[in-house]
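Teaching assistant here, posting this on the class forum so everyone can see the example we discussed in section. The complex has two components, and the goal was to see what a joint structure prediction looks like when all of them are supplied at once.
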Amino acid sequence: MASEIMTLNMGPQHPSTHGVLRLVVELDGEVIQKITPHIGYLHRGIEKLSEHRTYHQTLPLTDRMDYLAPMHNNLGYVLAVEKLLGIDVPERAKLVRVMMAELTRLKSHLVWIACHALDIGAMTVFLYAFRERELVMDLYEMVSGARMTSNYFRVGGLSRDLPAGFEQKVQEIVDTFPGHFDTYEGLLTKNTIWLQRTIGNGVISAEDAIDFGISGPALRGSGVDFDLRRDLPYSGYENFEFKVPVGENCDTFDRYKVRLVEMRESVKIIDQALKKLKPGPILADAPQVCYPPKESVYNSIEGLIHHFKIASEGFPVPEGEVYMAVENPKGELGYYIVSDGGNMPYRMRVRPPSFVNLGAIEKMAKGSMLADLVAIIGTLDIVLGEIDR
Amino acid sequence: MAENNRAVVKLKERFADALLEYKEHRGEVTVTVKKESILEVLKYLRDDLRYNFLSDVTAVDYLGQEPRFMVVYHLLSIPNKDRVRVKAPVTEADCSIDSATALWNTANWLEREAYDLFGIEFKNHPNLVRILMTDDWVGHPLRKDYPLQGPDREPYKGRLS
């Protein structure tokens, strides 16, 4: 029978495209022949803006890229600037950063599991995961005052120390979250509909995954045993013990399992960080770079001038270029900063994991049914704010 | 030091006349090569030195300098847990370089982005069209002479805030 190719617009108002993504899908019957993604037009222009702001002023721009994991974006940026400056941050600041980064991973993965499950039709998990995410948001609010755009890390350390009662709250999360993960697994892993829609769907082999530059859980789901936290450690991750889960069948179900294990490992890392946490300074001994303590700003003219100078002029950064990549919940989030010796980045480039991962969508979906495309978009865990910086 | 880095040692042997510069800064090795040999160098790094993962392709606009653009490749070796940065200068008059899509599919979208925002043409790219801006957009926003506040505005000379 002669077949005719039909072109279908999926998005930008489709609920499973998670934002401003539009996929032009060419179909033969229900089988996908070709996908042309049109990404965004969000255009915050973060890379361009950062060329006109000081290093501290650039920091709030970075939260807004991957709005599900703002602290990870901050972490990559401050680590890159610290590397460029050649300064080292105190132990307590490192531990708090690791702890917050892993809480962020939980927060991001909870949104992933919620939306992925909802895309495929499981509503209970969606409600449960968002309920748990609120607890992490409360912690965000405690440390930074904002539930989403955290802006808590600073070049040289943290903006302030942990508030009273924070550690108990984190301990509660450590104690209760593994039980919640059991619930999700109970709802999904033995669910026939879930299994039929994820197993064997969106297969991408390890070679193809590397060829397409896929990173993060999607890469590990394809069986590549690589995690930046373990293999190119930063911010003291070498002192933590955790497993890196790896998939075998390279399909949507494997990526689901990898992320679930990752959440459990994150809880273990948070627990270790909590046990290691000792009182101490939270800012590096670098007065040129770090804001002075608030007491000295309010009570002494020197402190006030110092604060004013850093806030308005910033600080000069030695000439050079660095690339600093962190293991964002979506994959390798890299910051490439070129300094010309001034107080603003000459060029700041963000290597966005979602952007590169989305590039593989045609490879993953070609030959599948249209309905499976929803599962494949969900399994890539894309955030459009990061794709179209 | 950069001289002892395994990539630099091998590249010095094989591509002596293409290698323009190599240096190490904050523990990161940067190799600058002539743009004519960029594909050979990348292929050699991928196949023989196992830098199998192309992390990033981007560009830097050094307005007022010659050559004006620098195309930057970040390579990662998953087996050896090692990174290297490869750069190739591109002049404003001949604003083009060979596409790395023949070696990695990653390069496809990343080169489209660099083309879109910097106007650098990647030769032999299968589908070199804009990716972040609309098809009919005029200009390349990340160039230093492109006004910060958008087209038809004076280039902003002072500070934003």
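For the discussion questions: Chain A touches chain B through 44 residues (CB under 8 Å). DSSP finds 17 helices and eight strands in chain A. Think about how each of these relates to the inputs above.
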